Amino acid sequence: MLKAAGWLGKAAELVIFEVMNLRMKVLFTLFTLLSAVCFTAEGQTLKVVADKIVSQVGDKIILKSDITNSIADLKRQSQGQDVQIPTECQVLESQLIRKALVLQAQKDSLNVSEEEIEAALDNQVRMFIQSYGSKEVLEEIAGKTVYQIKEDFKESFREKKLADQMQSKIVDGIKITPTEVKAYYSKTPADSLPFYESEIEVSQIVVFPKANKDVEEYVSRQMYDYKRQIELGSKKIEQLAKLFSEDPAVKENGGQYVLNRSDKNWDPAFMSASFRLKEGQVSPVIKSKFGLHIIQLISRSGDEAVVRHILRIPPVTDDEINEAKAKLDTIRQKLVTKQIGFGEAVSKYSDDENSKFNAGSAASNRDGSTFVNIDQLDKDLIQPISMMKPGDYSQPQVHTDERGRKVVRLIYLKNRTQPHRENLKDDYNRVSQRALEEKKNAALEKWFKEHIPTYYVLIDREYNGCAGLDDWRAAAANATKARN
């Protein structure tokens, strides 16, 4: 709500990037695992009773605890989600790949600045604090200070960023030509091509009606009453937040957020007001692009602050909604008479930040395609879309968005496909994306095949049964011969 990119996520973030499989296949996913600190359900630091070096690439070692802690951390983070937990063999393989990429990055003089690492560490700690509620609780659970936690993570973050840079260096210059896309498509058996149900490509221009001043002042007076109750001690801000705040996350967090001055995603008015407060102080009513707030500073340490807030969104009346409709009627007329293109109209008139810079696309698939099944749209889009033909513009539609605000939008049905087997005419972008990924994976595979023999490799016999480590074991055998 307060962040342009959305609310803060879970305590720990899984960063995923694809790499090649050393068995001449693509390794389905490489998890960059945060294994320096793990917290068990009982809230105690995870202890590893026995530890040993189980593998080594060059001067980079992999400990048994790196593998077991990584898996334990993944299990903790994925509770309640349908996530396949990797095996020890898979984690070891991903660790070997990362170590090799880091070694080459260092050899090629790639560099990660201290500022980049510090920013990543700050973000990670903020996510932990957000999950556990406060810095004090986090430190109690970890058995370490925030400074010590960041120090524990620092080398892991440095390696991850170096590995990312090296992978990018290997594949970023790879492009795909139409001829290669056709060749990729032609080698796929016809009965193996995916089948797509009818899909649509739909865009929108969204206008947020503005509440009139009288309504805004009425809501503001209510919020000043909340402020007085908090300052008199008759109510706590978290109690009032749960009763009255229109922040969708209030049930989970009681209106509490962790802010950092360097985070540019927060609303500037909200951020500025928060950092002007003293601990325990409650702000006057602040207006942001999301509505009206009062903010209480809970604690502050340097550029970090823990705050609680109450958000109220002044309701709009029929008059403001009709004004927004009239504005969109005028825009629709310009579109119909071709005085303006739809992409230009979105950029010029739409209030929706999420779609303002992608030509107003109302939804998109994970593969990057703007064609979606109709059931992927919000329910208020389905009825007007069913009455439209490709190229049609709807009349202005009143809609309640995910934040509970009344908005008015103009819908454009750009295209509608019939149910069909995948083909190059209708699905070129999807096919080209898969072809590009295959080409990148082939480049990574080739790179590793050439470079693995150049590294000193050690793999503990405990992992002799791991499929997929043949090339690494061959390199390890060569290293043993060289030592003898």
Describe this protein's structure.
By secondary structure, the chain is α+β, with helices and mostly antiparallel strands. It has three domains: 1-193 and 422-484, Triger factor/SurA peptide-binding fold; 194-210 and 317-421, Roll (Chitinase A, domain 3), CATH 3.10.50; 216-311, Chitinase A, domain 3. The chain is built from 16 helices and 15 strands. It has helices spanning 64-77, 88-107, 114-132, 135-142, 146-171, 178-186, 213-232, 237-244, 250-253, 268-275, 318-336, 342-349, 353-356, 379-386, 424-451, 470-483; strands spanning 15-21, 25-32, 53-57, 60-63, 195-196, 199-207, 256-260, 286-288, 291-301, 304-312, 372-373, 397-400, 406-416, 420-421, 457-459. A four-stranded antiparallel beta sheet has the order 11-6-13-12, with helices on both faces. A four-stranded antiparallel beta sheet has the order 7-10-9-8, with helices on both faces. The longest helix has 28 residues, at 424-451. The protein is flat. It starts with 14 loop residues before the first strand and ends with a helix.
Search tags:
484 residues, alpha+beta, Triger factor/SurA peptide-binding fold, Chitinase A, domain 3, 4-stranded antiparallel β-sheet, 15 strands, disordered N terminus
Summarize the structure.
Helix content is 45%, strand content 18%. The chain has 16 helices and 15 strands.
SSE topology:
Blueprint: E1 15-21, E2 25-32, E3 53-57, E4 60-63, H1 64-77, H2 88-107, H3 114-132, H4 135-142, H5 146-171, H6 178-186, E5 195-196, E6 199-207, H7 213-232, H8 237-244, H9 250-253, E7 256-260, H10 268-275, E8 286-288, E9 291-301, E10 304-312, H11 318-336, H12 342-349, H13 353-356, E11 372-373, H14 379-386, E12 397-400, E13 406-416, E14 420-421, H15 424-451, E15 457-459, H16 470-483
Antiparallel strand pairs: 1-2, 3-4, 3-15, 5-14, 6-11, 6-13, 7-10, 8-9, 9-10, 12-13
